[in-house]
UniProtKB/TrEMBL annotation:
CDD domains found in the cross-reference section: SDR_e (cd08946)
Annotated transmembrane regions: none
Species of the source: Leptospira weilii str. Ecochallenge
Domain NAD-dependent epimerase/dehydratase: 11-156
Family per record: Belongs to the NAD(P)-dependent epimerase/dehydratase family.
InterPro entries: Epimerase_deHydtase, NAD(P)-bd_dom_sf
Pfam families named in the record: Epimerase
Name listed for the protein in its UniProt record: UDP-glucose 4-epimerase
Annotated pathway: Carbohydrate metabolism; galactose metabolism
Length: 194
């Protein structure tokens, strides 16, 4: 008789983006994960047997709770990019901050075990210069960076108040490699949190 494999159930947001797509490829290629994707757009481009793509209205608590139903780990990468954030700062905050808060609330309500949020190193400065750590003070006020920093602060608020002890948000550890070409290293770093 074969070995019983207990699969972790992941919810990945932002899988249409550059980083999210690579994280999806990393996890979808492994038999130990069942993956649900949520998107604001209807898309059939995700062709993996263990991936369930779903259109989701981010303003609907019901849609987000349905997306989080039965999920063990949320990996949240969805957000507005820097160019669009500069064009529409208010929408940048809606997407990058409020949608993060809505997804966190749904994950808490559905007892998701871990919530992993990917911010951006640009909260520290742009262009990135010098040595930076996650303790470096933030000083970038571009709408893209500022909205990601606000989302970090929102998550920190829930973590400190004890609303959710399962939040992880990383800027460097999962994102940056010395050459940013090593997707295996990226996958290995992210799996430390999964």
């Amino acid at each position: 008789m074969g070995e019983l494999i207990i699969k972790s159930k992941l919810l990945i947001t932002g899988a249409s983006g550059y980083l999210g797509g690579r994280i999806l490829q990393n996890f979808a290629g492994r038999n130990r994960f069942e993956i649900r994707l949520i998107s604001r757009n209807h898309s059939n481009k995700f062709n993996f047997s263990n991936v369930d793509p779903r259109y989701t209205d981010w303003r609907s608590d019901q849609d987000l709770e349905s997306a989080c139903e039965g999920i063990d780990i949320v990996i949240h990468l969805a957000g507005m990019n820097a160019a669009d954030s500069a064009q529409s700062p208010t929408e940048s905050y809606e997407i990058n901050v409020l949608n993060t808060g809505r997804l966190l609330k749904a994950s808490i309500n559905k007892n998701v075990k871990k919530f992993i949020y990917f911010s951006t190193a640009h909260v520290y400065s742009s262009p990135l210069v010098g040595e930076l750590t996650e303790e470096t003070p933030t000083k970038n006020f571009h709408p893209y960076a500022a909205s990601h920093k606000a989302a970090e602060d929102l998550l920190r608020f829930f973590l400190i108040l004890g609303k959710n002890r399962r939040i992880y948000f990383k800027t460097f550890e999962c994102l940056w490699t010395s050459d940013f070409r090593s997707y295996k290293l990226l996958g290995f770093a992210c799996e430390r949190f999964v």
